[in-house]
């Protein structure tokens, strides 16, 4: 999702009424970088942002200076929890839910391995169905089909993640 948003593809996200309240509270604590006077630009306690926040009724994307990353992370997590919002940290690829639980985004390398093994099992099931002594190899073909679907899903997601990571890196390069 983060990659799509960085690419400007906002059609996959929905508006959430708490986003505007979250943004208002966040910018009341740390104003947007383009609203502070030039003399305070280096005061990262006042404004930790490294660029303007990308804000819509559906999401807020923010980048902060490295020296304030821990403080900003804690503040954002607390405000998101307060407003019932989910956060995503693209550096660690961790999703944090309003109840405080977390989950990792599947790594594309793991998806490639899983997809490859699913393809291998597809081939094994098809071969086994063809040499099966019984006249009922349908179960083996069903398993082959399920493994094939899993392989396609894993490999497609791995490819998409690799492409999104590549385009996001290209956008972030100076």
Question: How would you explain this protein's 3D organization?
Answer:
- It contains 5 helices and 5 strands, in the order ααββαβββαα.
- It is mainly α and 174 residues long.
- It folds into 2 domains: 2-104, no CATH class; 108-169.
- It has a 3-stranded antiparallel β-sheet, with helices on one face. A two-stranded antiparallel ribbon has the order 1-2.
- Helix 2 runs antiparallel to helix 3 and helix 4 (108-131) packs antiparallel against helix 5 (138-172).
- The longest helix has 35 residues, at 138-172.
Would you spell out the secondary-structure blueprint of this structure?
Blueprint: H1 2-6, H2 17-29, E1 54-55, E2 60-61, H3 69-83, E3 87-89, E4 94-96, E5 102-104, H4 108-131, H5 138-172
Antiparallel strand pairs: 1-2, 3-4, 4-5
Concise structural overview:
The protein has 174 residues and is mostly helical. Helix content is 53%, strand content 7%.
- Alpha carbon gyration radius: 23 Å
- The counted number of beta strands is 5
Biggest β-sheet, characterized?
A: 3 strands, antiparallel
**Are there runs of 5+ residues with pLDDT below 50, and where?**
167-174
Structure classification: mainly alpha
Mean pLDDT over all positions: 83
Helix share of residues? 40-55%
How would you spell out the order of helices and strands?
HHEEHEEEHH
Strand content: 5-15%
């Amino acid at each position: 999702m983060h990659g799509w948003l960085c690419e400007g593809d906002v059609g996959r996200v929905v508006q959430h009424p708490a986003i505007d309240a979250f943004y208002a509270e966040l910018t009341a604590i740390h104003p947007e970088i383009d609203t502070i006077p030039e003399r305070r630009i280096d005061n990262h306690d006042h404004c930790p942002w490294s660029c303007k926040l990308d804000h819509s009724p559906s999401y807020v994307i923010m980048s902060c200076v490295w020296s304030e990353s821990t403080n900003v992370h804690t503040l954002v997590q607390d405000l998101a929890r307060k407003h019932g919002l989910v956060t995503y940290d693209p550096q660690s690829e961790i999703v944090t839910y309003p109840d405080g639980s977390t989950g990792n985004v599947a790594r594309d390398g793991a998806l490639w391995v899983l997809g490859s093994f699913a393809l291998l099992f597809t081939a094994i099931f098809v071969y086994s169905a063809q040499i099966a002594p019984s006249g009922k190899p349908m179960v083996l073909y069903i398993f082959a089909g399920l493994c094939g679907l899993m392989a396609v899903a894993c490999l497609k997601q791995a490819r998409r993640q690799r492409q999104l990571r590549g385009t996001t890196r290209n956008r972030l390069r100076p």
